[in-house]
Amino acid sequence: MEKGDVAVFWELSQTTSINGDPDLALGAIQEYAASHGPVKHKIAYLTGPNEPSRSARLNQLGVQVKHCPKNGQKETVVHSMVVDVSFHCALDFPQTKTVVFVTGPDRDFTYLARVLRSQGKRIIILVMKNGRIAKVKKPDAYYPRPPLRTPDMKVNRQIHHPKHPPKQKKKDIRAKQVAQRH
C-alpha cells in the first residue's frame, strides 16, 4: 500500500501507564505511524474529569483533545471515536491512507476497522504491553475476531457460531431429560 496521510485516534483511558509523560507517549505513537506517511491528525479522547494541565500539554504537542464524559453508567468515548473516525475518513479527509488506533485489548473498533480496510485504508493498532506502547503484529488476528487466549491478554469467553452451540456436558443433558419426563 502506498504512503499517505496518517490519522491517530488515541483512547487515553486505555493507556494510563504512559499518560503521565505525553511527550514520550506521543513520540512512540508517531514512531510507529510515521513510516506510513506524515501524521496529519492526532486526536485524543479523555473519559474522566476535565484535566486542564494534561489537555493543555497535549494541545501544545499538536494533539486535539476531546472530552467524553460518562452518560450515566456508559462511557461515550468509543461512540465518539467511531463517529469521528467515520466522518474523518469518509467526508472530512478522504485522502487519509492510514488510521492508527491507540487503544486497549477490548476490540471495540472491530467493525469499524473492517469497514475501513474494505475502503482501502491501512489499519495500525497500538496497545499497552508491559507499560509501553506496542504494535499489534498481526492486526488481522486482532480484528475481526479475538483469539480465545493470547499471552498478553486474558480473554476467557468462548465464541460460538449460532449453528454450532457449545457442547453440553453429559450430566447436564441427563438432568434435562429427567426434568422433561416429570
Overview of the structural elements:
This protein is of the alpha/beta class. The chain has 6 helices and 6 strands; from the N terminus they run βαβαβαβαββαα. A 6-stranded mixed beta sheet has the order 3-2-1-4-5-6, sandwiched between helices. It is globular, with a radius of gyration of 20 Å. The N and C termini lie far apart (65 Å). About 12% of the residues have low confidence. InterPro entries: NYN. One of its GO terms (molecular function) is RNA nuclease activity. This is NYN domain-containing protein. It comes from Ephemerocybe angulata.
Features:
single chain; 182 residues; alpha/beta; 6 strands; NYN; RNA nuclease activity; NYN domain-containing protein
Across the major sheet, the strand order is 3-2-1-4-5-6
Structural class: alpha/beta
- Uncertain segments are 144-164
What is the typical, i.e. mean, pLDDT? 76
Topology order in helix (H) and strand (E) letters: EHEHEHEHEEHH
- Rg, rounded, reads 20 Å
Q: Give the total of beta strands.
A: 6
Largest sheet: 6 strands, mixed
Helical content, roughly? 25-40%
- What general form does the structure show? globular
Q: What is the strand content?
A: 15-25%
Count of discrete alpha- or pi-helical segments spanning 4 or more residues: 6
How far the N terminus sits from the C terminus, by CA atoms, comes to 65 Å
